Amino acid sequence: MMEDFSIEALRCIVGERGVITDEADLAPFCTDWRGMFKGRARCAVLPRCTAEVAAVVRLCAAARVPIVPHGGNTGLSGGATPDASGEQVILSLSRMSAIRSLDVIGETMEVEAGCILQVAQEAAADAGLLLPITLAAEGSARIGGILSTNAGGTNVLRYGMARGRVLGLEVVTADGSIVSGLRQLRKDNAGYDWKQLFIGTEGTLGIITAAVLQLAPKSRQRVTALLAVPSADEALAVLRLARQAIGETLNAFELMSGPALELVARHVGLTTPLAPAPWYVLLEASSSLPSLRDAVEEMLADVLERGAASDGVIAESEKQERELWHLRESITEAEAREGRSIKHDVSVPIALIPAFLRVADEAVMNAFPLARINAFGHAGDGNIHYNVIIPPDADSQALNRLVHDLVVDHGGSISAEHGIGQYRVDELHRCRSAPELELARRIKLALDPAGLMNPGKVLPQTIVTG
Ligand code: 2HG
Ligand code: ZN
Fold this sequence. Notes:
It holds the Pfam family FAD-oxidase_C. By secondary structure, the protein is an alpha+beta fold.
């Protein structure tokens, strides 16, 4: 039987200050960071502990009220933005931000979903350890959002996606049960690894409330270098040489186009210390072995001698390192200030990046002569942000389709690290095979039969409603 829903009942669970209904206060929860997605909500509810999350979910489930979980709101795919109905409840995990424990021997950390990534990184660093999830948005992104979108970032090359960091998970399922698997185990093959159902599924199967994360040793040496390269092919030649020379120390291998850095210069006022070039590579290596810098210098000399790079600079101080990274991390902001852009967060097999870029550039420019391509990304793991700046009246759906078809032709994925959210639901359906979609449908129906968990995200809502 469907029960009545009341804001008062929510307040009884989370306290007076835990429910936001005022329109102005609610506004930031109803749009994403770029202002691309907008919706309305009944309220935002901010529980203080897992038991309160469970009670909120039970209350909403009984009244058939849909829930939209909300982390740091930095995902860029609209996964945390409610729909236009005004019926949905936003569930923000921001008041659950504790680092519950840190184990220096096992190198693990138990952390609540609302903890900001940078805070967790700093806690690990204070203990002489590393939390190796590194994102441009790390000052705002929260652990729950990072795990429920299986975020990537700049260190995937060495440390893998967010999923790979998760040893244990605590979730609240669609019926309001708490399932706790907060184990610290590296090896745990006892039955289904159900954690994976909640990681990367963007809150459509349940709500992540806490996790045990695998930390890593903190390296004593770090070297950061910026190279100017004549083409994407040469960037891959640099990658190959770097993998051969310093492979296990390579944290990041980022590719930035000349036009991407022009945007950064124009809108953020940062410039590269190198002469203008078609492409740039930003690489970072770290190790505790004292010989790291010598090895990187030797590798760069080799790269320059072979002509794979035309110029290069190694950061001489932490300040210079930060400046080089700041260039890379400012691209998104610069792009947002430039005007309307259509994002394609794609991945292809690494060796096919140059071929993909060639074919896509040609096809996009043919179909959209006024377009400007802003390509950059994590070339070391195959993820290119193939963003396109287009005039306000250009057909974004046609552009999406054009790019995604080429991605599929190259054996790639239409979302490498930002997820599907609401932005790519139709495209996921177009690009994935029927058996894969059917499997997803069966999982959704098994775990959220009423379709109340972040409806309309990842999978079309019609999967549940028929
Ligand atoms: C990055 O790599 C982020 O900087 C943002 O994933 C990507 O703005 C984008 O499209
Ligand atoms: Zn990225």
